[in-house]
Amino acid sequence: MELTMLGTAAGRPAEGRNVTAAALVLPPGRGTYWLFDCGEGTQHQLLRAGLKLTKLERIFVTHLHGDHLYGLPGLLGSRSSMGCDAPLAVYGPGGIRHWLETTFSVTGSHIHYELEIHEIEGDGGVVHEDDEFTVTAAPLNHRIACFGYRVEERPRPGTLNAARLKELGLPQGPLYARLKAGEDVELADGRVIRAAEVTGPPIPGRVIAILGDTTPCESAVRLAEGADLVVHEATFEAALADKAAEYGHSTTAEAARTARDAGAARLLLTHFSGRYRDEDLPRLEAEAREVFPPSAAARDFLTVHLPHRRRS
Questions:
Q1: Which residues does 30 contact at the CB level (< 8 Å), separation at least 6?
Q2: Which of 59, 73, 141, 182 is most open to solvent, judged by the fewest CB atoms within 10 Å of its CB?
Q3: Active site residues
């Protein structure tokens, strides 16, 4: 599983830096990816990153400011024109349905696949759940309704105790898979082997928090609690805290404090103001590291690998 940053600029594109979008590539067995925000030009970024629209499964929009969603109608239309007929789900704050449907109506656009639009209201909560992942949304503190997302992978079954199974005289085969899946099995001689007795403890799943625009708030800390990776906006440098608060944003140091207070493993800074050039990013990164050492400033097309967690 890995996260590719497709756009790291705030407000408008900058030279070498597009507006906000990130792709979470799911484990190989799934073969799909999810998109978080879809600023203008995201289609081009996906092409450059080698991510096919036919593999896109879900889109999570943090809020309805243009630098986070102006690329969405075109992307949805391109996916349809490519002949992709797999359903696609879009999640976002209230109003996203009206905006999309109005855009399609006035432009005469047609989507030839099932488009599921899920509007998130109030305090959010679980917005998606399947056999592998749970996605929880919570409101952040911005100028308009804005949400952050917490993606939690379900725990994996513990390792089978091969030595113990050999002692019990269980031959390798389908019963191993059933035990590893947590299922007790009955042998031909009537003995029952309990899965809990022959497997190790479950291996914790990975957790990633992708936050929208926000000033520091408790919801951001809760979403990021214990996360393997937190993606947090850092629109301004630490000295511009007043300006950040005025516009509903965070500084490098504030983002770092959120990750630190949440007990996260790593922090990725993004959403940089156009006042900063690439040569400024090491300085912004250093500011965050003073508060939370495992911090890094994102660049477009940076890919962060998310290895499996070790047993707790």
A1: 132
A2: 182
A3: 67
